[in-house]
Amino acid sequence: MSFFRDLRVAFYSLMRTQGLAITVILTLALGIGANAAIFTLVRGVLLKPLVNRDEDRLIYIRQSAPGTGDANSAFSVPEIQDLRAGVKTLSAMGEFSTLEFTMIGLGEPRVVQSGVVSGNFFEVMGLHPVPHCKRRRRVSTCATSSPSMFPPWATEKHLSK
Prior knowledge:
The radius of gyration is 28 Å and the shape is elongated. The chain has 161 residues and is of the alpha+beta class. The longest helix has 30 residues, at 18-47. The chain has four helices and six strands; from the N terminus they run ααββαββαββ. It starts with a helix and ends in a 19-residue tail after the last strand.
């Protein structure tokens, strides 16, 4: 019973000194909120499993060019076609490549990093990107794509930095 008595005495003491009560309540609220925010961040970044379907079955194939010192050189289109034709143990293949280009027309020319993926890349990774849709009045129009077109859900990086 002494715990409840101590709790009651603490409550009445805080009620008599309202400035201290507000300080205690704000400190507790900030501590709990910061703890929840940090745990959410750690869970989302470190603890949450990847969203790829069958991630234990995904493999990353790369090649190196020892003569140029490049440990991860890009495959050419004929090499990718040879891999697709020659490797029969893979159920599907999706390609990803990075490239740089220079953007002009918005002030100073800027080098922009970009990524290019094959038409089936998202399917192979088990990802379901959201199409880019334009809403006009009450009708929603979404761009559609074929494997030969750029997908409308390609990620954009804001260039206003």
